[in-house]
């Protein structure tokens, strides 16, 4: 397990054990589906409307040789709260294109989503994130994240909403 994986796991477990507000947040361990090609995915789902998320490079956050990219959609509103978060790390033997699908909630009905933030660490600034189902103001959101030409990829996703 990489140092980053151990750090992320420690941070998540620390939040859960602390007993504060973060202790009530459900940390999802599934709900990730690998999508090899967004265009192929769209072709398999006729009528799919894809919304590109806002992208921002975050200077100085990542380890040497990596970049931090933040994707977000929506806005924090009065009365919303952190309703779920996920995180994972992937390491590959050689640089490649990485795509995955994140969905909130994993099953059942979730809170009405007000804001989503994905923070990705990767080896290049090439990539995008798209909402492919649900969205802001709805009780479901499904996002496809792409990172191009990377050996190392990690993400943290935070979902805010109103019950």
UniProtKB/TrEMBL annotation:
- The signal sequence is 1-22
Q: Which InterPro entries match?
A: MBF2
Q: Give the keywords, sorted.
A: Signal
Q: Which domain of life is it from?
A: Eukaryota
**Protein name in the entry:** Uncharacterized protein
Q: Which organism is it from?
A: Drosophila erecta (Fruit fly)
List the gene name: Dere\GG18115
């Amino acid at each position: 397990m990489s140092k980053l994986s151990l750090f992320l796991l420690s941070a998540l477990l620390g939040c859960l054990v602390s007993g504060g507000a973060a202790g009530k947040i459900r940390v999802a361990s599934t709900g990730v589906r690998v999508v090899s090609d967004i265009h192929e995915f769209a072709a398999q789902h006729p009528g799919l409307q894809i919304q590109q998320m806002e992208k921002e490079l975050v200077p100085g956050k990542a380890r040497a040789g990596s970049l931090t990219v933040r994707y977000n959609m929506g806005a924090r509103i009065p009365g919303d709260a952190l309703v779920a978060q996920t995180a994972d790390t992937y390491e590959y033997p050689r640089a490649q294109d990485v795509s995955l699908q994140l969905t909130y909630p994993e099953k059942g009905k979730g809170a009405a989503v007000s804001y989503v933030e994905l923070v990705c660490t990767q080896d290049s600034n090439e990539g995008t994130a798209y909402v492919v189902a649900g969205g802001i103001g709805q009780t479901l959101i499904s996002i496809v994240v792409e990172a191009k030409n990377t050996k190392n990829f990690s993400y943290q996703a935070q979902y805010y909403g109103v019950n």
